[in-house]
Structure of Signal peptide peptidase SppA:
Amino acid sequence: MERWLLEMVREQRRSRRWKIFFRLLFWTFWIMVAATVAFMATGEQESLTGRQVGVVRIEGVIDSQSPASADRVIRGLNNAWQGSEKAVVLDINSPGGSPVQSQRIYDEIRRLRSTGDKPIIAVIEDIGASGAYYIASAADDIYAAPASLVGSIGVIYSGFGLEGAIEKLGVERRVFTAGDNKDMLDPFQPVSEAQRRFWQHVLDQTHDQFINAVKAGRGDRLSDDPELFSGLVWTGEEAVSKGLTDGLKSVDDIARDMTGSAETTDYTQSGDPLEQISRHLGRMAAQYLGIDFHAGESPVRLR
């Protein structure tokens, strides 16, 4: 009995130690999160002290779940428009992405331009292609580096036809639909000629919207090169002669031209730290399991 009681006491002590450990771990985690949020808030407040040229960065693929989503870019644009005195600069380094997200940002730039005489200037870093160029074309002026990649005014959908593969493997595909074309993009189903024509019409219509937006933004600065809207990309140096850009400048060059200093104010929306952590963990899990993280998004891409 005495031995049994001693063992119970030891077990209770061990249990109490583990509870204390996990509580400390829990509170340490939340203290770190709170410190990160406070640090980011402080950085944003400090950034608002320079009210000359406001910068909004558009980096990476443009889609609703990325840092370059329309919601985040538009919030940054509006803050920069209200907070900067001289100009708003879009610092672009993106291969493109969602046509819907690109259209939303394009429309917001045009709306802001109609409400005042403050310039909105796009600067292309390594790449400003497809949906990223769609956005840039709404700006008053576009600049790039000599070796930047600019253009790619086109629309793409890509997939695989695997119906022959499952036949060889002896796999039976079971899909139930209401609507003759509901499974049109299923890679394990053949595509009829009528479906092919319909999908090409969707791509052509999106391409026309892209072309019209670029023409509205760039006007008579565009050259009459027949390959301008073919999906080709050009270097920043070549893009000037095509009318796709207005010259070769960096963000620092523009800030110095307007204020005499390269100092700018960054209005880019960084997002919630917890959201960033959870998204990163979700991507890691999806990659490990072989899951398409962007499943359910539009398959049409401006890139």
Summary: The chain has a mean pLDDT of 82. Residues 49-153+220-289 form a domain with the 2-enoyl-CoA Hydratase; Chain A, domain 1 fold (CATH 3.90.226.10). The first helix runs from residue 2 to 47. The CA atoms of residues 138 and 217 lie 5 Å apart.
